[in-house]
Amino acid sequence: MASRPPNRLSPRLALFLLAAVAVLAVVVALVWPPVAPVGMGAGGGEAPPAVAGGGPVPSASFDATEEPPPRVAIVFDDLGRDLAAADRLLATGEAITFSVLPFLPHSQETAERVHAAGEGVLLHLPMEPQAYPRLRPGRGGLLVAMDEATLRGQLDEDLAAVPFIDGVNNHMGSRLTEEATPMAVVMEALAARHLFFLDSRTTPHSVAVEAAERAGVPWLVRDLFLDNDQHPEAIAAQFDKLIDLALTRGHAIAIGHPHPATLDALEAALPRLHEAGIAVVPLADLLPRGEAMWSPSSP
After folding, report:
1. CA torsion, points 287, 224, 243, 92, in degrees to nearest 10?
2. Helix, coil or strand: residue 127
3. Superfamily of domain covering 71-286
4. What is the pLDDT of residues 85-108, one digit of tens each?
5. pTM above 0.90, yes or no
């Protein structure tokens, strides 16, 4: 029997097969993920650090080298007399800090509402002013003439009267905050409760900061009052100062009161703060990390 000649591919079929193999190789190269070298991400850049539970830490949505936006804390004092002012402040949707006087008809409910809304609560602690007894700080006031036991007892009652507090600032107090001994008692009580202190700075001779430093209490100082003059133009001018200070220094602290004119001015000023790129933050967000923050007082 004659032998069969070996099978041979026609030139046309061979070219077709070679082309098919080339196309397949290109497709595989395009869709198959490359193997990343150790320490590198699939895209060839540095891999994000792993978290303790495994998996990468998500990348930040902003440039970590960017400066944080300017921040202001706006504290409203003298709350607790009614609920209308607190409700109006909460309705702004901003991170206002609410400072509540003790023993007023709506002190506790105000603190509860504010806390439920996720905003910060301070005890607005009554203290003796220079004009005492003509000008009285109200129920719960701490007086220079009190002995230490009486002062501690009154302070304990005041701190218990307003729930959910993060810190304390002084109501009046231009006399008592000048006295080292009673302020040491105040700061000792705050340290035991892990509370911070905002010096409302009702006197240029306040020793509150020094007392807080000795007791290890975190502290801040008010920059300006918004409404010592309650004329609308004057309050608007104070908001202008607040904006300028925040843009210049990066942070600022203002104190206002629930007067209708101040509430109106706040609502008018909030869009201007936003346009200037200034964030309204809880007062506690301005607490320093590692060292005290001095906010120089200005009228």
Report:
1. 80
2. strand
3. Glycoside hydrolase/deacetylase (3.20.20.370)
4. 999 999 999 999 999 999 999 999
5. no
